Amino acid sequence: MNIYKFAIRPLLFNVVKTDSEWLHQQTIRSFSWLSQRNISPPASWVNQRLQKSLCLYDSRLEQNLFGLNFPNPVGLAAGFDKDGVAAGIWSNLGFGFAELGTVTFHAQPGNPRPRLFRLPLDKAALNRMGFNNSGAAAMAARLTQQKQELTQSIPIGINLGKSKITPLEAAAQDYLDSFRLLKNLGDYFVVNVSSPNTPGLRSLQDAAMLSAILELLQQENTTQKPMFVKIAPDLSWSAIADIISLAKTYQLAGIIATNTTISRDGLKTQVIDQTGKSPQLEAGGISGEPLRDRSTEVIRFIWQQTQGQIPIIGVGGIFSPEDAWEKITAGASLIQVYTGWIYEGPVMVRRILAGLLDKLEENKLTTIREAVGLEFKNQK
Length: 380
Hints:
Elements: H1 3-15, H2 20-35, H3 41-54, E1 63-65, E2 68-70, E3 74-76, E4 97-103, E5 116-119, E6 124-127, H4 136-149, E7 156-160, H5 171-182, E8 188-192, H6 207-220, E9 227-231, H7 237-249, E10 254-257, E11 285-288, H8 292-306, E12 312-315, H9 321-330, E13 334-337, H10 339-344, H11 348-362, H12 374-377
Parallel strand pairs: 3-4, 3-13, 4-7, 7-8, 8-9, 9-10, 10-12, 12-13
Antiparallel strand pairs: 1-2, 5-6, 6-11
Helix pairs in contact: 4-5, 5-6, 6-7, 7-8, 8-9, 9-11
């Protein structure tokens, strides 16, 4: 029985009605304590129990992609550990990789509160955080210290965003300044030009603007760290095709599909309790179940356009093994979770991995790699 889903979550969501951002901060604080090396015996015991109950190791789930070894395909999406304060804990929670950030060159407080809302009727979240973080220099200092103390067992990505105070015409330099500070500390990097919560940011998905950013970053990227771009689900097919072309031109490692959506179609939630307003009237991006089908459509489109030659990290509305399998067979080599993890609890990762192993057996496959893009392979 999932104790979190049936006992703890209802208590936090419905009885106590805990503020979403406050709860997130307390969770990160606990994970930060657990991720430190010189921890107390009680914390060490908790880590051992977490590993035993939440991790699932099986060679069939392993992949080597863009020079990195992923013990399993389920990763933590950017946005949960914005400052990299808990980088050492994510492998103990069952994840095959984790993405830190979004981090900006300048430290910034983000948008006014409240700015994070649960939509339980839709199994969704609405956020307008606005890249609140301590800045690239602070993350670099923290990760440098952690690197000396910890041996990472999973790949760690760093998601880069534009500082709010930086004009759009200076965006490329802003991304470059962050990358220079962090380039030796992440296993892969993500250019985030798709959050709806920084004014004008999504305009950087335009081919000319994005080209300028990628040009500068790849010139600096002398050690050839894998570089991704994260795109919005609300782009037109032609705009996504332009980004695919840029990914080839600048030899990106892949594309992350997708960020949150500004669409409000089909939402069941009529009023957000904290504000008394409809989600239609609230700014921000929607994540979770309402995003699932569209993000899968985008994954499918990228796979078809590239014949599977550009790796895709799929994110959006993953709650179950079936959701994960759908993304992988549509073309995602790796997947990321965030909102689903909040709703389903920490045991979700292990449950998805066990379900993926069952799917492999059902389809007479020996590795998860064989399942990537399977729906197209079956059409041939």
